[in-house]
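Quick check before the chapter quiz. The format below is the same one you will see on the exam, so make sure you can read both the input and the output lines.
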Amino acid sequence: MPKLRRALSKGGILVWVLAAIVLALVLGSVRIGGNHLLPVGVGRVFATFSDLFSQFLTFSIPLIIVGLVTPAIADLGRGAGKWLGITAALAYTSTLFSGFITYLVCAQVFPRLLASTSLGDVEKPGSALESYFTVEMPAPLEVMTALLLSFVLGIGLGMIPRGVLRKGFVEFRAIITKLIERIIIPLLPLHIFGIFLNLTYTGEALAVVKTLLRVVVVVLLLEVVILGVQYCVAGAYGRKNPARALVTMLPAYLTALGTSSSAATIPVTLRQTRRNGVSGAVASFTVPLCATIHLAGSTSKIFAFAYAISLTQGVSISAPQWVGFVFMLGITMVAAPGVPGGAIMAATGLLSSMLGFDDAQVALMIATYIALDSFGTATNVTGDGALAIIVDRMTGGRISDGGDPENARELAFDTTAYLDDVSAPGMSAEDLGVLPSTS
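Here is the expected output.
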């Protein structure tokens, strides 16, 4: 048992989520003498927890949006002059491309690939294991209200140099990041265990797993295509061999597979980007910045699984809704916090408000996203090298219009220094998690 616990701790949230799914499938499907191995009464305890967690998540989503999106937009308003804006525009364009090519592929492939699969009964899987009680936790804001408020405040704060309100949102972002890192993410495996245990009792779990495995294959192939296009464009513009440049970035890809963190992969990404001929100044500027704002792989994963779930559960979503979702998802990815699974947590508000997903569908999205978290992160950081090649050609290898390109933290004024100044011992900026974002 101690060895098992050490292995689970070392593997992070991914191992815990996979263990929760497997354990739920086993305990919910094995019967002894006609009775479930896990008694229904015990199963209802986990169903109750899942219900309470879903309520708490509903309460937290608007706070997550305001706490992450507002300072993220404000940070983009200042920094290294025009090159910050240009790099952000390139990252957003790449993210939109990822979303729309995923949309086109899903619209053409999924109706045939998933034609024989229907998960309509999974939409509300509460008939087998009912919770003992429920507690209503109303959200402080509607999700769309939170998004609009974040945009208005973020743009406004970007125009005010180091105002008091901006510092308040820096601290609020640290609180929300800790909420995700210390409460939501650690409890997520229990929530997913309860969801899949319920699905197993209703007999729908196997259909869900089979469906998601088909989608996984499409997503992985899509990410190869996305990287191929990114490096073809970067190679053509930057006058470099795209295949050679992509191969040079493979160490960063493999490192991200192991760490599931864009921030932790920055040193390797930076080294390989320089080996592609990008100047040190440009690489030091673009790589840390893109680790925060360029999440093309994460966008593709989220969209593909959202499309598959809506298709198999009979959720009617029009083409304009999907287009709007891609545009909003690209903006939301900028605010994804620096914790495993942060991208999907930042996107949960869009799933519920724009696509009409219920708690069970959001839980499925979270589980499937985290199961492929490292592949999305690897695509994100590898794509950062392509953007660096483009920026290097545009700037001529120099970033000279403001800011210190060797210090990525200067891009968001002095949030880390500020938190270090006002924090008690043990609560510095690094302790509070105000670091470059991961997928």
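If your answer matched, good. The CA atoms of residues 309 and 361 lie 7 Å apart.
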